[in-house]
Design a protein that fits this description.
alpha+beta
Length: about 140
């Protein structure tokens, strides 16, 4: 698939268990996936067809995604398709900001879907920029 992250390791290297050690290993794995993606996408953004706007990837979104996606092996696998998800996810609905962290940075949240993955996008208060907030498997 176009723009998928190509790495020297494969999904067999992803820890499969639910232990704290396995979750930490997946967090490290996700951080490496993001580093590879950023090398291929130095602008740290992808144009989304459904929103007709760019979705930016920043540290807040990477942190939130790493935290959530590392909980399961299948959510971790979503990051192999980061470009595809950002580009082709389709708008589902708007959502209110819920956490203090969301309220501090975002006016509202956009819920999107691409195949079995949910993409949450925050809309910034000041610039109306779309920021990738979280990617996870739909459960």
């Amino acid at each position: 698939m176009e723009n998928e992250i190509q790495l020297e390791f494969d999904e067999r290297e992803i820890a499969l268990g639910d232990s704290q050690k396995d979750i930490k290993a997946r967090e490290i794995f996700i951080i490496q996936l993001y580093k590879c993606w950023e090398r291929e996408n130095p602008d740290k953004r992808i144009y989304n067809e459904s929103l007709k706007d760019f979705i930016y990837v920043n540290s807040e979104g990477k942190r939130e995604t790493t935290h959530h996606a590392a909980r399961t092996c299948l959510s971790t696998l979503a990051l192999f398709h980061l470009s595809d998800i950002l580009k082709n996810a389709e708008f589902v609905t708007f959502d209110e900001t819920k956490s203090k962290r969301q309220k501090k940075s975002f006016e509202k949240m956009i819920i999107m879907k691409r195949n079995e993955y949910k993409l949450t996008v925050g809309v910034t208060k000041t610039e109306n920029k779309k920021i990738q907030y979280c990617i996870a498997l739909i459960e």
